[in-house]
Structure prediction request, 452 residues.
Amino acid sequence: MFKKILIANRGEIALRIIRSCREMGIQSVAVYSTIDELSLHVKFADEAICIGPPESIKSYLNIPAIMSAAEITNADAIHPGYGFLAESPEFSSICAEHKINFIGPPPETINAMGDKANAKNTMKSVGVPVIPGSDGVLISHNQALAMAEQIGYPVILKATAGGGGRGMRMVERKEDLLSAYQMAQQESESAFANGDLYLEKYLIKPRHIEVQILADQHGNVVALGERECSIQRRHQKLLEESPSSAVTPEIREKLYDAAIKGVKSANYVGAGTIEFLLTEDGNFYFMEMNTRIQVEHPVTEMVVGTDLIKHQIRCHAGKKLPEWMTDVNLRGHSIECRINAENPDKNFRPSPGTITSFHMPGGCGVRVDTHVYAGYHIPPTYDSMIAKIIVYAQTRADAIKRMAGALDEAIIEGIHTTIPFQKQLLMHKDFISGDINTGFLENFDYEPKKGS
Ligand code: MV4
Prediction:
């Protein structure tokens, strides 16, 4: 097993990883920018090293500074968390050169999955269902026109280097295809230095369902339930749950089969997520693979009853997955609400500043993952997520009630948060009945005063 892990991240995920290291008897090294000196990940790690000024590019994305910190502290592995360098092929490759274990895939795998058209082809070739569309990237807008004619409108153009909704254009009529093609191309060229696009049939209000997988170095791959992530605003998830109210045992079996087939074809090791779109008729299609631990992993931990970070680390250390994971019965229902320092009354604009008072909920089946506390100053520099409230209960209805109570107990003063929005969301009749899809929040009328 590793003796010392450097955590190349900040915030709640850095603290989350430190906690698993501690239980595993692994020493932890925190890295931090000057503005994060008083963050809890710095306080709770066994060692902490400053890696630069606040700007991410000079600290949490500064590969030479992070590698120096790893060498100085004699860390034998690096956990990248999510975001920052988690899906950087360069970072993975530099770790390998320095003989430091990167707790993530090799650069080739990150590249193969990072190219969305390529990932889709890989999945298709092993029999995973994919959305009808172009075979790889488009060579011209005329090819796009012909393809759209063949599969029928509406269609969607996607950046092969994209993901998370950037460089995407929905097209309803052939008259709009040329300009959409040019805009999507330009957008992805400037965002990713790669203007390549692919085309798909546009699915109407699908659900975003993802399958958690773990793979060891001995050829074992397990699927650990699905997560329902349809509650998103501008491609930012706000609430996630497991299991999904739309996934029947029959669909789950097929989802697992597809996810495991896909992961095996990539010779994947560690923790990963296969994202699918699920349509109302019960069909699902591969969308993307994420080669990292995700923000919403706790809802899976709750219904499976295991520590995913611990098993991710074990897989990278060459350990075999435990036998029980090959056939897991999901137990109960879990929901996560992301608490962001944003003002939902002002179009979710960031609300950094000092937290003057802070109280988190507790009680049976309530978990809070956070790096903040009363007196903490939220810098304007990074992601606005400051806490995750996760509940577990026997049924979905009970989990919703438990979350509503937990949000009522939560007190955060001095800044604005997404809590009032989350409270209203939990009261919506379509949410309560489980009638949700990726368009849900577009039609959700938030009333500023009601939830606060
Ligand atoms: C789609 C789609 C409908 N049809 N592809 C958005 C993020 C990117 N990863 C893929 N996305 C979508 N792809 C086809 N062929 C609808 C979306 C989509 C979406 C997907 C997941 C979660 C939220 C979403 C919100 C709007 C659109």
